[in-house]
Amino acid sequence: MPDSTRSRYDVVVVGGGHNGLTAAAYAARGGRSVLVLERADHVGGAAVSARPFAGVDARLSRYSYLVSLLPRRVVEELGLPITLKRRRWSSYTPVGEGGLLVDSQDAAATRTAFRRLTGSDADFEAWGRFYAMTAEVARRLAPTLTEPLLPRSEVRDRVVDGVGEDAWRALFEEPLGDVLRRTFADDVVRGVAATDGLIGTFADVDEPSLRQNRCFLYHVIGNGTGDWDVPVGGMGAVSGALHDAAVAAGATIVTSATVTAVDPGSSGAEVAWTDADGRARGVAAGHVLAGCAPAELERLLGGEPPAPGPEGAQLKVNMLLTRLPRLRDDVDPVAAFSGTLHVNESLTQLEDAHAQAAAGRIPDLPPSEIYCHTLTDRTILGPALAGTDAQTITLFGLHMPARLFRTDPDGARDRALRATLASLDSVLAEPIEDVLALDADGAPCLEVRTPVDLEGDVGLPGGHIFHRDLSWPFAESDADAGRWGVETEHPRVLLAGAGARRGGGVSGIPGRAAAMAVLSA
Fold first, then answer.
1. Are strands 34-37 and 252-254 parallel, antiparallel or unpaired?
2. Residue whose C-alpha is closest to residue 178's, from 164, 163, 194, 189
3. DSSP 3-state of 43
4. Which residues, in sequence order, are CB contacts of 477 under 8 Å at separation 6+?
């Protein structure tokens, strides 16, 4: 970490999250002088690993936790030494005394599970057709994410020519709820599919804006497969590799550096910031790449953030268990928890929870989904835990918008956690509290973060994990075709974070796009 900086850089990156680091690595490799300014005392933003429990050597992916959208192209171009492991089982959904296990490597077993739940093969066959369609759309669209924006008409032609008109309508024109009701007969099956449209997105499945469709699309197109993989070593291994790539390319990274203003200028930008000692500093920049959220960039530019602003909608609970909890079904717990375990996420339950949250209430039966990192990768556990039955659990609660936590953050957090744990207990054969490990102080190994907490922790406006609602991954006007989807009204200021047109998730796509825009200027 340098104790001094130059007075001018070709590129100044605001924010050292994984996208900011990606932008820095590409720009520096392209021969530009690069300075990264990060508010926190470490880089990585929301893509970090941490030891949240006192005296317990378990490095959890604290905020973001799985990887799908990070293109192989970025990994190869930057030479990132990261390993992503594929999960054998896609999902398990407890229902009464049974459940639905989707095994990506055993179609016969999955067919049996669908038949046991629904009473026929119809939804299993519909499931196969539906996800074969999304897989083909993914195969055709994923390569475009690292290229300049294509016009909507060309993306439509790619989908229609290769997959069909029905695929275009289902994903890009009709509300997701209508599509799922038409495709599947069973309410639980509909809900399992619907959740990919609601991760980090507060929307009803019938929302006319189709923001739930955009969220769904990004969840099924990553790397042309839609697979969500486990980063070996935790999410910190990903941001750590990007940090090392940026530094190796020559970028200068300063932490505990708070940017206070950005002046776009006409011939060059100026960035004001304060250092770790509170001293006011300034630096000139040929370009400013904003890894922060668009709302934060607008504030730094001296404007008014949008009203209403972005709103996140998730409750994140990290846990360390002494062992996996028992389920009511005779399903293998390893299979159930290795993939995504859906908790009270039938379509009706999702709709009810959304309606209650929209009315300003914490849902009575909060829907959530769970996965266990350590069933795929035990390297995140220290030696004292490595030979035990201990497991890390990540719970992601849906329909928990920031509005529920504004007036009473602590009280609402406690109420939301109690309701969420009760919802989880309703599908287990024993209370989750019975298998929670204890930290060095005797407290349960459980950490809960609301959207308001994320706003304070990592600077996400409204706690929105995508910085704002996701956009379609193509140019929606002729003027934007051929651009990178990172441009602002100021030619020397570009978006480089999740709020860019092809942002969201741990992807590096907007960071790379911002660097490409600079290098091609």
1. parallel
2. 194
3. coil
4. none
Residue ranges with strand state E in 344-470: 368-371, 391-397, 446-449
Domain boundary among 458, 475, 510: 458
**99, part of any domain:** yes
Tokens of 36: 């990264």
Compute the half-sphere exposure of residue 266: CA atoms within 13 Å on the CB side of its CA. 0
Give dist(CA 271, CA 297) in Å, integer. Answer: 12
141 and 172, same domain (yes or no): yes
Domain residues for the domain of 74 are 8-47+68-83+232-307+464-519
Note whether 381 and 503 are same-domain residues: no
Does 338 map to a domain?
yes
Domain at 494, CATH number: 3.50.50.60
How many C-beta atoms surround the C-beta of residue 23 within 10 A? 38
Q: How many CA atoms lie within 13 A of 353 on its CB side?
A: 31
Supply the DSSP string of 448-494, one letter for each residue. EE-HHHHHHHH--GGG-TTSS----SSBSSGGGTTS-S-B-SSTTEE
Give the integer Cα–Cα distance in Å for 13 and 90: 37
Q: What is the pLDDT of residues 114-167, one digit of tens each?
A: 999 999 999 999 999 999 999 999 999 999 999 999 999 999 999 999 999 999
pTM above 0.70, yes or no: yes
- Rounded (5°) CA angle 199-204-210: 80
Residue at which a domain ends, from 439, 458, 477: 458
pLDDT tens string 38-88: 999 999 999 999 999 999 999 999 999 999 999 999 999 999 999 999 999
